[in-house]
Design goal:
Blueprint lengths: L1 H18 L3 H7 L2 E7 H11 L6 H8 L7 H11 L4 H11 L2 E2 L1 H8 L3 H6 L3 H14 L6 E4 L12 E7 L8 E7 L15 E5 L1 H19 L10 E4 L5 H16 L4 E3 L7 H11 L3 E4 L2 H6 L1 E6 L4 E6 L3 H13 L1
Parallel strand pairs: 1-3, 7-8, 7-9
Antiparallel strand pairs: 1-4, 2-3, 4-5, 5-6, 9-10, 10-11
Helix pairs in contact: 1-2, 1-9, 2-10, 3-6, 4-5, 5-6
């Protein structure tokens, strides 16, 4: 359980880091709980309540909906759609709706000797895991939640899910994972025990964006949407100018300057200017036939509305000089 605890430590550190960006980020990302359970315990609950082996996964998929549906709806699905005996469903309901502080709930569940026997090594694993999490000072971030199922069949042990509790957002789960000891073996000739976690990057980015918009609205200023500092365009068409734009971009990329170029053989200057303005790109490099003959480019600082004619070999230094106060 050491690797499992390390993964969970990384998850907590990641959530803390995301919420520490500003007070606005803390409001949305700082209030969370990590639900945690164990597939062996969930299967043990089903078995001790009378679920047959062949029905474990179908019933597990119903329980996985408890975070979105009321118990009565989940029970109705298990009984009416999946043919589970109503008494068995009621027995399951009494157990899977239990949740609380990890060590306290674990101690309560261990008083049920039939359940302990049915769960195999599940309780032993969780007891050791909770001790490790306590040693790393992160146990307070967890809730032992027997309703957690994680619908994917490949999980074999600990399962977890980070859920936002803030009223500022309705996104819900933003990270999840667990142990999957037999998954790699399905694609190779040997078994490789694994435990992992994934972050819901799209959900997190949406929340970060909301926090930034609120911060801007309250403090003033603008948010630059793209991670692009320089756009390289041309006022006229031709393969020769496209090659030159590519050469310029290549030199800027090598200098770690974030840039993009116009890919068209026949670029329209007004469309390029419209794109740069819409994307809030601060610098525009223009190279045409005249510039090509002279070995220069036009470097436009759009914020200050200034234009500089710059030799190609001095372009990187000129761009970095302009960008330095912007990035500061």
């Amino acid at each position: 359980m050491v690797p499992d605890s390390e993964i969970l430590k990384v998850l907590i550190e990641l959530l803390q880091e995301l919420s520490s960006v500003s007070e606005f980020h803390r409001r949305r990302l700082g209030n969370y709980v990590v639900k945690i359970s164990n597939r062996k315990i969930l299967d043990g609950v089903f078995k001790v309540c009378g679920v047959e082996e062949k029905d474990l996964r179908p019933i597990s998929s119903s329980i996985d909906k408890l975070d979105k549906m009321a118990w009565e709806e989940v029970k109705k699905e298990m009984v009416d759609a999946k043919g589970l005996d109503e008494g068995v469903a009621d027995a399951i309901g009494e157990l899977v709706r239990k949740k609380g502080y990890p060590k306290e709930l674990l101690a309560e569940l261990k008083t049920n000797s039939k359940l302990v026997e049915s769960c195999g090594t599940g309780f032993e694993e969780m007891e050791r895991l909770f001790q490790y999490l306590e040693s790393m000072n992160i146990l307070e971030s967890f809730s032992f939640d027997l309703s957690l199922a994680r619908g994917l069949d490949y999980y074999t042990g600990v399962i977890f899910e980070a859920v936002l509790m803030s009223d500022e957002t309705s996104v819900g789960s933003i990270a999840a994972g667990g142990r999957y000891d037999h998954l790699v073996g399905k694609f190779s000739r040997r078994e490789v025990p694994c435990v992992g976690c994934s972050l819901g990057i799209e959900r997190v980015l949406t929340i970060m964006r909301e926090a930034e918009l609120e911060m801007v609205a309250e403090k003033g200023g603008k948010i630059r949407v793209p991670e692009i500092d320089v756009y390289v365009g041309s006022p006229s068409s031709g393969e020769r100018l496209l090659n030159e734009r590519m050469r310029i971009c290549s030199s800027l990329w090598e200098a770690s300057i974030r840039c993009e170029l116009n890919y068209s053989l026949n670029p329209k200057m007004n469309r390029q200017l419209e794109y740069v303005g819409k994307q809030q790109i601060p610098l525009l490099v223009i190279v045409g036939e005249d510039e090509l003959e002279k070995g220069v480019v036009q470097l436009k600082d759009l914020a200050k509305k200034k234009n500089h004619e710059v030799k190609f070999e001095e372009l990187v230094a000129s761009i970095k000089t302009i960008l330095e106060p912007i990035e500061a």
